[in-house]
Amino acid sequence: xxxxxxxxxxxxxxxxxxxxxxxxxxxxxxxxxxxxxxxxxxxxxxxxxxxxxxxxxxxxxxxxxxxxxxxxxxxxxxxxxxxxxxxxxxxxxxxxxxxxxxxxxxxxxxxxxxxxxxxxxxxxxxxxxxxxxxxxxxxxxxxxxxxxxxxxxxxxxxxxxxxxxxxxxxxxxxxxxxxxxxxxxxxxxxxxxxxxxxxxxxxxxxxxxxxxxxxxxxxxxxxxxxxxxxxxxxxxxxxxxxxxxxxxxxxxxxxxxxxxxxxxxxxxxxxxxxxxxxxxxxxxxxxxxxxxxxxxxxxxxxxxxxxxxxxxxxxxxxxxxxxxxxxxxxxxxx
Amino acid sequence: xxxxxxxxxxxxxxxxxxxxxxxxxxxxxxxxxxxxxxxxxxxxxxxxxxxxxxxxxxxxxxxxxxxxxxxxxxxxxxxxxxxxxxxxxxxxxxxxxxxxxxxxxxxxxxxxxxxxxxxxxxxxxxxxxxxxxxxxxxxxxxxxxxxxxxxxxxxxxxxxxxxxxxxxxxxxxxxxxxxxxxxxxxxxxxxxxxxxxxxxxxxxxxxxxxxxxxxxxxxxxxxxxxxxxxxxxxxxxxxxxxxxxxxxxxxxxxxxxxxxxxxxxxxxxxxxxxxxxxxxxxxxxxxxxxxxx
Amino acid sequence: xxxxxxxxxxxxxxxxxxxxxxxxxxxxxxxxxxxxxxxxxxxxxxxxxxxxxxxxxxxxxxxxxxxxxxxxxxxxxxxxxxxxxxxxxxxxxxxxxxxxxxxxxxxxxxxxxxxxxxxxxxxxxxxxxxxxxxxxxxxxxxxxxxxxxxxxxxxxxxxxxxxxxxxxxxxxxxxxxxxxxxxxxxxxxxxxxxxxxxxxxxxxxxxxxxxxxxxxxxxxxxxxxxxxxxxxxxxxxxxxxxxxxxxxxxxxxxxxxxxxxxxx
Lengths: 334, 293, 264
What we know:
The complex is a heterotrimer. By secondary structure, chain A is mainly alpha-helical. Helix content of chain A is 78%, strand content 1%. In chain A, helix 2 runs antiparallel to helix 8 (160-182) and helix 4 (64-81) runs parallel beside helix 6. Chain B is globular and about 60 Å long. Chain B has a single domain (3-279), classed as ABC transporter involved in vitamin B12 uptake, BtuC (Orthogonal Bundle). The A-B interface holds A 60, 107-108, 110-112, 114-115, 117-119, 121-123, 125-126, 129-130, 132-133, 198, 243-244, 247, 250-251, 254-255, 258, 283-287, 289-294, 297-298, 301 and B 31, 37, 39, 85, 88-89, 92-93, 95-96, 99-100, 102-107, 109-111, 113-114, 221, 225, 228-229, 232, 236, 261, 263-264, 266-267, 270-271, 273-274, 277-278, 281-283, 289, 293.
């Protein structure tokens, strides 16, 4: 039983998720929904990475939108301004993000707790200001236009459905790799750092190196999302990568549930789609958004995924009355 | 750079820095009793300014009364926030509480936008707009008000923490929550009190800054950010460090804007902040964490 | 003395103005259980921390298997086979019992990140071996039936055992136990003593034990080192230590030293 539980891998759930996602265009052949889902997938890619950093290794970053932005602007400038081929631009953008994350992470990850939050927040703001002010490169606050649509093997993905398939595929790949990593000695080391740094180092985990590794990895995920974003919309502006976006990414991770990789996906989908559903309320839209955020966090402390888990347990308990007394007994003892 | 323009930068830096400091002070007070960063702190500052604007321009109240009502209103909202959204879930992990305060800040901001409007407003200066000239630099009377009120607030808080039983109890909570609880201090009441005091302090900052820089429903975001930076720079948990941190950031920004470029003034302040954190990971006046196994 | 696994030579540790350890020299022989005892504040845990690298000595040297450890970070020392447990349990509560123990084997990990990403045969092989070793270690301490429980749900005594399994699985050459009996009842303490002895006899682990429970110490120790006020007061077999008048004085206080009673 133990063997099957640990070695079965993540192929099955990720495959099921992929199948569901691919079925959506048939059920909802509406380009508007597809574009929102595409954006949700991109956010989910970033959130999954941030969850590795925040949920598993316990290190906060309030500057992850900057990594999305760095990749988006890098590929925008490389392709639109200098006409670099798509694959070259991809390598350039991701390489740049990884390098910046490495250089920023080395001093910043020495900070802990709220100081780390401030450090990453400061980095995000500095990058945001650079996007705004280096107008000759980025177009400044009004943004950058004319970024070519993504092309794969010489074929430009103009159809929304095609792009949707692409981002879904990339998200599933990212999920698969992340789940695999979590179920390895690296994942265990990250979780160890989260609960007890001193115990982690005393079992041989090089804490500084692992923090840096997961920081760079999550930045690369954010970079991939930023790359996809730039070539999807063809237009980027600094406001898409500002402080509030970084905060929103953290909210996605926590609201989704930090206990699992899937939580980040749930949080990203929920928070990306919520404003679209609330659009009918026009003026009170943000009011309701804030209210839902507070409400969810108050009543689902374990996030969406954790909340669903609790719901299942409660349902199972109510169907099996004899289990109730045993459970309450346990609670009294614990 | 000549004396008069450096003095000018210093004046404007200190003026803005004082409000950053007051915002940071609010962060610190709540952090000390709860261990969380209250992302709605900037909204308390906004509430101070905006409520005063509403009382003064819409209700036609005289300025002192409007200011007083604004401060009371913000304090009341601080209390409501604690009772409704924080107390019921006080045992939740800190990150959850932080997210809740993010939600609250969105709520307060959009409620203000709905109840009032999206425009920018201004308050009359407290005592006229005739500038004072000092060594060739001009100083607005409002700046003196801001610096003076900040000093009074700091002194008042110091007396409160040192002399009054509530203040001592709050310090005890900050130091050791469990021990404070064991000696019979009502930790819940202290948390409520801390939300009220930081809302009040924030509102004071908002009210006095409004005549200088205008105010609107969304000024809280940036002020909150700067206040957070101020209390981190000063060393989290140290109220006077937060005030000093605020002044330092204000002055840095002002000189950065004057000497480098106004576009990069925020970046300048944050770069200095980051470099400082790399050298002193617990801020200027923070106690370095003693590592014991 | 050819077999001494750990040698501390004139180790001094200062915390600010406080001299926590002043010129402590001691050895731990391979294949033995050596206890470090002494009144509260005598520097026992500090000595242990100096060996594992969480505290830097101001002077002196620490040799492990003939090589200097001084200056190496804790994870490198763990990598060389110096493992420890903690006085306040440091269980990874965000993992299952089995995962905790598997995490303990980190220092033996060989596969790379890419192996993990793509679940290569190398990854599978090593994970299987790690899992088997972890189950074996859990079996050794008697927790195998709880392998899939969240570690935080274990009772206190079982969490102690889990921490033991987590170090056993790493096949330490030298294992430092920091007050492993703290919080255990008499029966659990007796079982713990048995476990420590089996670790020496069946697994060949050299143990250094910091402990307050004298019954346990006298029961399992081959050698005992007594610290008092940061200095070595005595060293010897349990019998020698029990008969040493200075040790008795340090523990019970003599007429002229009543105020400095350690209160252990």
